[in-house]
Amino acid sequence: MSLVTTPTRQLAVCASCSGTRCTSISMTLTDGTPVAFTSCHTCEQRTWTQGGHQLDVATVLIKAQKHKVAKAA
Ligand SMILES: [Zn+2]
What we know:
This protein is mainly beta. The chain is 11% helix and 30% strand. It has a domain at 22-64. It is built from 1 helix and 4 strands. A 4-stranded antiparallel β-sheet has the order 1-2-3-4. The longest helix is centred in the last third of the chain and has 8 residues, at 57-64. It is elongated, with a radius of gyration of 14 Å. It starts with 21 loop residues before the first strand and ends in a 9-residue tail after the last helix. The mean pLDDT is 83. It binds zinc ion.
């Protein structure tokens, strides 16, 4: 997978197909990291970015994970 990371204005552009039919939302992960989530309507690629840097989905999942508290018995 070779991604050409071209900073593209503020428009949400799909990192996969370069399409602009994207939905972009900003949110804050459980650990306080502000991220932007972009979902492409063309190829269904979902991209997470933090400050312009693309994040691994795995990374996001870890950051978004709620600290599961084993049933305090
Ligand atoms: Zn796409």
